[in-house]
Amino acid sequence: MLRKNKLTKELHKAVNQQFKGFEVYFQPIIDMKTEKIHSMEALLRFECDEFGKISPLEFIPLLEESDLIIPVGRWVLDQALKAVSMFSNIKVQINMSYVQVLKTPALNDILNIIKNYKIENNQLVIELTESGFIESNKNFIDFCNGLKKENILLALDDFGTGYSNFHYLYNLKPDYIKIDRTLMKNALSNEYENMLLKHMVDMAHSVGVKICIEGIEEKEELERIMLLKPDYIQGFYYGRPVSLSVFMESYEI
Q1: Beta carbons of 11 and 66 less than 8 angstroms apart
Q2: How far is CA 209 from CA 99, 164, 195, in A?
Q3: Which of 9-23, 109-123, 193-207 is the least confident region?
Q4: Alpha carbons 165 and 172: distance in angstroms, whole number
Q5: Is the distance from CB of 36 to CB of 64 less than 8 angstroms?
């Protein structure tokens, strides 16, 4: 509890000091038809003098509990769209918290920043997890419909690990669904899980939804998962999250 309270104070201080200690890293997502970069995911990092580098698994829930995710999320959006404005042929994928969707005019924020950096609407992919939406919420549905209307792409993250996956797939009609490493690893080690994932991929493709499989770290994993015919791959095998400057030096785009 003491650590949580101290870390929350550090997060408040960072926001008040123009987001000092926060940085946006980028990880490539590979199109398996062309084996070139399709998009880059923006990933938030944080460190401070008191605690050093903090895992997102620890600090992001604190941002959400304190509503600091609202200014920080807007800052991440700005940084990510500024980054993708340097490229004309790739997209950027950004995780958006349910707190932002429910408590702010999130779509207006997105459209204003897109306009500021003069990028195409479909260069942005908003990632949402269902963890914050056990039950459908009108604001949430309206937000997703608004994305569609504005030609901003939608991805459902961590698909297959939550509660109402097929319900959301039907209601929200996402452009992409992302399969996380846990489900991928289970599919490689268990024939039953492999068959379930195969049917999940086939079902998504049958309704025009693209599949991205996350967490691929080794060549053997890639070769075996490719039998399921995913559209995109993300993972350490193709690249770890890095700063924008390193990303631009490391990849030909």
Answers
A1: yes
A2: 26, 17, 19
A3: 193-207
A4: 10
A5: no
Quick check: helix, strand or coil at residue 42?
strand
pTM: 0.93
Whether residue 151 contacts residue 160, with contact meaning beta carbons closer than 8 Å, is answered with: no
Residue 152 and residue 154: Cα distance in Å, rounded?
A: 7
Question: Per the structure block, which two tokens stand in for 14?
Answer: 């960072």
- What is the spatial distance between Cα 24 and Cα 80, in angstroms, rounded to a whole number? 7
> Is residue 138 predicted with pLDDT exceeding 90?
no
What is the longest distance spanned by two Cα atoms in the chain?
Answer: 51
CA distance 143 to 46: 28
Rounded to whole angstroms, the Cα distance separating 105 from 161 reads 28
Place of tokens 């939608």: 154
Residue 136 phi/psi, 5-degree rounding, is: -60, 140
